[in-house]
């Protein structure tokens, strides 16, 4: 067909679109990896209703496979109890880490060609897992005569048709990580850590020992004048009083003619002053009269 690849089985025909061709290639490669593990006689049984990667997530099968072909570099402490592994995820992560370390140290596998722990444990990158295992199995076939040949297995798998159900499960495996990726990137809202119990108790004791200090109010009591008004009144009173006292002393020490001359001279000098000064002077005199009136009334009442 022009827009796809057509594979025919004895009882049905399936048409693959262009996008499905990559799924088919990945599925065939995955099945070849699974067949290699099965033919290695380590007790691994492949379930065709599931993907190969999903059946290797505990890492136990890979460790047992390694021990079969690398007798001089055994992986010890393999966690195989399914109940314990399912309850404690760190165990199968440890299996995978041990397998990857062995591949680097003994099989001379390039770290860049291998996969990360989460790629298998969380199925975050199943394609990377299959590619790395396929490369490892090629090396095993070259160095071990008793090992199956992965290329022959792949050839046999390709000759068999792939059904629609297998296509869908491998499609879901490849597409699932892309759908889950945004969830992995989401950040948990920052929460301030609670203080440790000892620190919290110390703060509580300090709060009990130190009484709360009352807040002083700066409101001005009713009936009292502000400091600014009092300052102006005091300054006006002192200035006006000084002027009056000086005038009284001048009157006592001079006769009438002198008083007249001094008065004319005073008025002439006063009128010669700038308007702003004259206004200020008369305001001070008025303030003096206004301030003295309440004082005289208070004296009379007493």
Automatic annotation (TrEMBL):
Protein name (record): Calponin-homology (CH) domain-containing protein
CDD domains: CH_SF (cd00014)
Highest taxon of the lineage: Eukaryota
This protein's record includes keyword Membrane: yes
TM helices/strands, residue ranges: 266-291
Protein source organism: Carpediemonas membranifera
Biased composition range(s): Acidic residues: 193-211
SUPFAM superfamilies: Calponin-homology domain, CH-domain (SSF47576)
The UniProt record lists the keyword DNA-binding: no
Region (Disordered): 164-230
Basic and acidic residues bias spans: 164-189, 216-225
Alphabetic keyword roster: Membrane, Transmembrane, Transmembrane helix
Record InterPro entries: CH_dom, CH_dom_sf
Database matches in Pfam families: CH
Residue ranges constituting the Calponin-homology (CH) domain according to the UniProt record: 53-139
